[in-house]
From TrEMBL:
Boundaries of every BZIP domain copy: 27-90
Name of the protein described by the UniProt record: Basic leucine zipper transcriptional factor ATF-like
Region Disordered, annotated ranges: 1-55
A GO molecular-function annotation: RNA polymerase II cis-regulatory region sequence-specific DNA binding
Alphabetized SMART domains for the sequence: BRLZ (SM00338)
Comp. bias intervals (Polar residues): 1-23
Similarity comment: family membership: Belongs to the bZIP family.
Gene name tied to this protein: LOC113120649
Compartments in which it is found: Cytoplasm
Length: 124
């Protein structure tokens, strides 16, 4: 309810009759209840605004994280292509190993190369 909208309310424009102490007490309660309600509504609006601000910040942070992860995926994809090319170029040089078991080619750790290969870092 907007402030000042109670100007036409008779309980605010007339003073209660001296013999009507119950009415005066009810008016005080009504004013107190309206004030408490006004404060509660104000706090609720502030909490709602704060929640919206927090969600906006979280959204921005997640967008930044998403962009960084996409950049990393791109870099790793390029690195995988490069390593695949290096491996393809290296395999013909491994004479006498064709038909050998993977353990002999790659050692006990499957997926590990038998020789260290320097990998350039591509700028993104």
């Amino acid at each position: 309810m907007a402030q000042g909208s109670d100007n036409n309310d008779s309980s605010y424009t007339k003073s209660p009759s001296p013999g009507n102490k119950q009415g005066s007490s009810d008016d005080v309660r009504k004013v107190m209840r309206r004030e408490k309600n006004r404060i509660a509504a104000q706090k609720s609006r502030m909490r709602q605004t704060q929640k919206a601000d927090n969600l906006h910040l979280e959204s921005e942070n997640l967008e930044k994280e998403n962009a960084a992860l996409r950049k990393e995926v791109k870099r790793l994809t390029e690195e995988a292509k490069y390593l695949s090319t290096v491996l393809s170029n290296h395999e013909p040089l491994c004479t006498g190993l064709s038909g050998a078991s993977p353990e002999l080619l790659y050692g006990a750790h499957h997926g590990a190369f038998h020789q260290h290969i320097s990998v350039p870092h591509y700028p993104l």
